[in-house]
Amino acid sequence: MKKVWIDAGHGGKDPGASANGLQEKNVVLELSLAVKRQLESKYDGVQVFLSRSTDVFLELKDRTDKANAAGADILVSIHCNAGGGSGGFETYRYTSASVASAAFQNLLHTEIMSRLKPFGVIDRNQKAANLHMCRESKMPAVLTENLFIDVASDASKLKRQEVINALIDGHVAGIAKYLELERMEEKPVTQERDINQVSDWAADAWEAMTQNGYVDGTRPGATMTREEGAVIFNRLRTNLLKLISGNTQEIKDLETRLLQIEKEDLK
């Protein structure tokens, strides 16, 4: 079981960057929750942990301590940027990062940017810095800066669900590729029949039952309830009683004839 630690930056009393009607803490929490849902629902053998799943404040040390204690295989700290002029997307590793962290950053950055390019997002490239989340983590760790809150063009993109989906899909794809996760087997979808269309093999019987008043001719493919079954059997019972009562003399004549045959056999 692979363990992934997703850290939604800021939270609670720390909103992070705020501008253009957006708060960083809210955007990154939405991304983090969705990354967890998609990884666990689409891939086998993966468990995703979150630094926070609600709007709460956590010290940086608390975040990395928990990730290290959990024995996570990788860590992704998700943020939005500010003060970047033209805006864009960038990722960070520690300045003295391991080969594994560099490889993870390259995969993650590439997968996310490939999904952001159609929206005209600027690629600010892969970078290294002395950031706590990357420095104090004992596993390969990458910090993503997902567009600039205070750049109007980026903020407008972050308000579009298709851009949010691109960020989510990119994070999921990069993590899955690095950990070599296998997608869950997709079960074939059973084609549901049209309940208003009668099957060929039952067409004659259905027509006869309709003409004789046992069914109303609608929804031939629908499941029959016990109530509907009772109605059909009661109609059959009524018709049988009518048939019997209408042929009383014929039944008596048949009984008389049977008695005569029986007497002749006894002679």
UniProtKB/TrEMBL annotation:
Entry protein name: N-acetylmuramoyl-L-alanine amidase
SUPFAM superfamilies per record: Zn-dependent exopeptidases
Presence of keyword Hydrolase: yes
Signal peptide from the UniProt entry: none
Broad EC category: hydrolase
EC number, UniProt record: 3.5.1.28
Pfam families referenced in this protein's UniProt entry, alphabetically: Amidase_3
Keyword set, alphabetical order: Hydrolase
SMART domains, alphabetized: Ami_3
GO molecular function terms noted in the UniProt entry: N-acetylmuramoyl-L-alanine amidase activity
InterPro entries the record matches: MurNAc-LAA_cat, N-acetylmuramoyl_amidase_3
Keyword Protein biosynthesis among UniProt keywords: no
Source taxonomy: Bacteria, Bacillati, Bacillota, Bacilli, Bacillales
Residues annotated as domain MurNAc-LAA: 64-176
Recorded GO CC terms: outer membrane-bounded periplasmic space
GO biological process: peptidoglycan catabolic process
PANTHER family found in the cross-reference section: N-ACETYLMURAMOYL-L-ALANINE AMIDASE, N-ACETYLMURAMOYL-L-ALANINE AMIDASE AMIC
